Amino acid sequence: MREAEAAARRAEARRREEIRRREEARRREEARQREETRRREEARRRAAQLEEEMKARDRERRRERERMERKAWDDYERRWKSLSADSDIRKLSFASIPWPVTRPPRSPSELDLVSVKLFLFSRSHSLEKSAKQRLRDAMLRFHPDRFEGRWMNKVHDSERAAVKEGIGRVARALNDAMAELQY
């Protein structure tokens, strides 16, 4: 009988040990799942935070670009008014002409359709004027014959070729923009 009791105790001990191992395995699995869930949640939070930071940077870049476009437009208009009002202009250079682009060009090659359209059609400035009116005003300022008659004699001889090329490039860009606007 003792042997049977000892065998029963051993069997009970094995059963308890098996239950203890299963319970331990279950706790480890639950802990692993909790850790995995925590990591996923942390990754989601980080992704959401990064996305929000990117959106904030984009908004800031957009505000800065709009500020630059408004400033460029204000400078452009101010420089044209000053140029038109100053009857005592000595000599103009390529750089002193208020070109219809956001950043002052260093050469005529920087005066292209995309730059001119981005500048004239920006929604950051002159909202009181339609895009067509802004385009028309620029066409009057940069019409090659009108520019030649009014301003070319005041351009430094050494810069005339660059200014003439710049005027031609702007006039073509404006004509292309007008054609696109009409369709």
Any overview of this molecule?
With 183 residues, this protein is mostly helical. It has a domain of 121 residues. It has 5 helices and no strands. Helix 2 packs across helix 5 and helix 3 packs antiparallel against helix 5. The model has no long low-confidence stretch (mean pLDDT 92). This is J domain-containing protein.
Question: What is the CA-atom radius of gyration, in angstroms?
Answer: 37 Å
Number of DSSP helical runs: 5
N- to C-terminal separation?
106 Å
Percent range for β-strand residues: under 5%
Q: What's the story with the biggest beta sheet?
A: none
- Uncertain parts: none
The H/E string reads: HHHHH
Summarize the amount of helix as a percent range.
over 70%
What is the general shape?
rod-shaped
Q: Total number of β-strand segments?
A: 0
Category from helices, strands and their pairing: mainly alpha
Average residue pLDDT: 92
GO cellular component, one term: nucleus
Subcellular location: Nucleus
Region (Disordered): 1-71
Main location: nucleus
